[in-house]
Write a structure and sequence with these properties.
alpha/beta; Aspartate Aminotransferase, domain 2; 17% strand; binds pyridoxal-5'-phosphate
Amino acid sequence: MPTSEQVIGLAKQFLTPNYTRYPVCLVRGENSWVWDAEGNRYLDFFPGWGCGLLGHCPPRVVRAVQEQVATLIHVPNTWYTEPQALLGKALAERWGAAGVCFFCNSGAEANEAAIKLARLNGKPRGRYKIVTLTGSFHGRTMAALTATAQPKYHAGVEPMLPGFSYAPFGDLAAIEKAVDGETCAVMLEPIQGEGGVNLPPAGFLEGVRELCDRHGLLMILDEVQTGTGRTGTWYAHQHWGVQPDIVTLAKALAGGVAMGGLIARPEVGEKLKAGTHAATFGGNPLAARAALATIETIEAEGLLDRAVRIGERFRARFEALREACPLVADVRVKGAMIGVELAVEGAAVVQGCLGRGLLINCTHQTVLRLLPALTVTDEQIDAGCDIIADVVTRMRV
Ligand SMILES: Cc1ncc(COP(=O)(O)O)c(C=O)c1O
């Protein structure tokens, strides 16, 4: 097996430099553990950037993919396949309202589809504009990127797509002000992930729903990061009893296999008529079987409840750290979605944890973000939190 150094050399020569990577080559994973090419083991509190909701190589997903890959890998959507139809049913049934699904391969693609669907719905009334929220993250393709209200991600690739306006997260009055007679939708994450694990203020999501109803707008929720049980309900919006018109999914949807999708109310989704949109690989049997196995695992192992308990354990640990260490400014938790805001930049903490065999993420310079697997054990949570506490406490301001 090549060494990490050899692989890094190849990558530097033959891959575009668009990722900030740590000098580690990972070769194998199992639950919350991953190993590098030198055999070093790491505890992963950020498996697959949120895609590893069940940890690395979850057994039911592995079995489903192995079986399916030897049966039928991919056929285009000119044909029907059972796994895709069953997945549509499974997702819609857990949504709490009648719904129809479209499948693709990533979060950005899911949001592109949602944006097109909102415009297709708005078209007869001359409406095409979408209001999104500052600090949001919706993906890197041009429409999803325009929806991402963070100038740093727009820099260098302007002009952005026309028809988007922005309002601060949590500010209903500002959203209302951004709406005009050509607006067709408001699009937001129920909890901002990349933006810093920002929880919605009390009444905010309900307020957006009411505002959308009053102005005849679609409410699009981007649940690419929060969906598929991450926060302890199938879809995070279920915590607030709010029913969106469109929800987008990806990341954990197929247990680590690439897949994205959306669910829409049938009268909204029907505007995605034949010829209006497509994805060649979308909803292929391999990804759909992996997604069905993911749902099966979550239900068979009671992982929605486990997500809540995971959140409580992390919260207790980080609240204790906040009391003990003035560098911890805030702790924000919803199920297995955890943000620890520091009073200093967090890059050195991530680096320090890596040196101690723990993988975590830092977003918006100061927010340590953890998206642990729902299969993580209490012992692993405690061991990882001990490392984080030790690294943070030793930080110099
Ligand atoms: C909320 C949200 N939407 C969309 C995306 C983009 O997903 P992808 O990288 O699969 O295109 C992300 C990725 O982090 C995300 O967190």
